[in-house]
Structure formats: structure tokens, C-alpha cells
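Page 42, continued from yesterday. The earlier attempt failed because a stray header line got pasted into the input along with the sequence. Redoing it now with the clean sequence only.
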Amino acid sequence: SLGFLGGLVQLDGSERFQNVAVRDTEFYLQDSSITSVSYFHVEALFWMFYATEDPALRAEVAAKLEEFLPTIFTGDPDDHLTYQGRAMIRWLSLLYYQRYFDDSPGIRAALLKGIWASASGSLPDSAKAVAERYPTTVYGPSIASMRYSAFAGIFLLELLDEGSSLLRDAPFP
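This time it went through. C-alpha cells are written below.
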């Protein structure tokens, strides 16, 4: 995972991992078939940015990050539930984007939507309501419900405690 490599570089600091992270980041940026619009690519891009010290490479990563913004501004009231709950991680990425790259009324509105959608005590699709409604399936625990709740929890914790989902000893550049 590209995101893992960025974190590993921050944790380990070895040149070997740094070289692999730079190589993989360059490959990612050069391959036009890979976009940042999925729920996981955009988070990986933040970790790639985190891992490199090259200003030119960081500028390319930052430009690629902007591709994901339209996926947040869809107006779909249930987009946080897509990908079987995995899409909620996009609001964590949007929070990073707002804090470390750019802020706008549209970004703040989308973050508010993510907060309301996941943490509301009255919405039927909040993380709590979904977990209560679908605690299990015929196959056992509801994996989609757990994913959604977990990703919503990470997003909300980061919102309340800046840096809690990053590495505190290595501030975001």
C-alpha cells in the first residue's frame, strides 16, 4: 500500500524505504490510469506527501489531490455509505486537505455534512444507527457496518484531536 510506505518512512527513516516510497510515488503520478478519486487512493496520497521531502514531487502530489474534491461535492446524501462503508475515509482525507492544503466554504460544508451524516443522533444512517440496525448478517458480524463505524470514528477523532490519525512525532509538512 502506498499509504503504508509513507508511514513506514516516517517511522523508520531509512534511506531504503525513502527510495522505495519516492519510486512508488513517481510511478503513481506517471500512471494516468490511477486517479485519486477512490476512497483509498486519496488517503495514500497524503501519506506519499508526508513521506517525501522533494518540493517538486510534493507539488505533483498536491495537484493530484485536487482531483478528489469533486467526489466529495456530489450532493449525494448517502455517499458516505458507498463502498460498503469505506467511503467514510474520504472525509478524513478532506479534513487533511482543509488543514494542510486549502480551505473554502465548500470544503467546510462538506466536512459538516460528513460530521452530521456519521455522528447524528437522529439520522437513520449515522454510524451508531447503522451499527444498531445491522449488528450481524446471516454470515456473522456486519463487516460493512463495522467499516463504516471505524472510518467514521477515525475521522471524528481526527476532527476533535488534530494529528491523532497521523504520527505525532513527525508533524505533517
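Notes: The beta strands are 136-137, 140-141.
Reminder to self: strip header lines before submitting.
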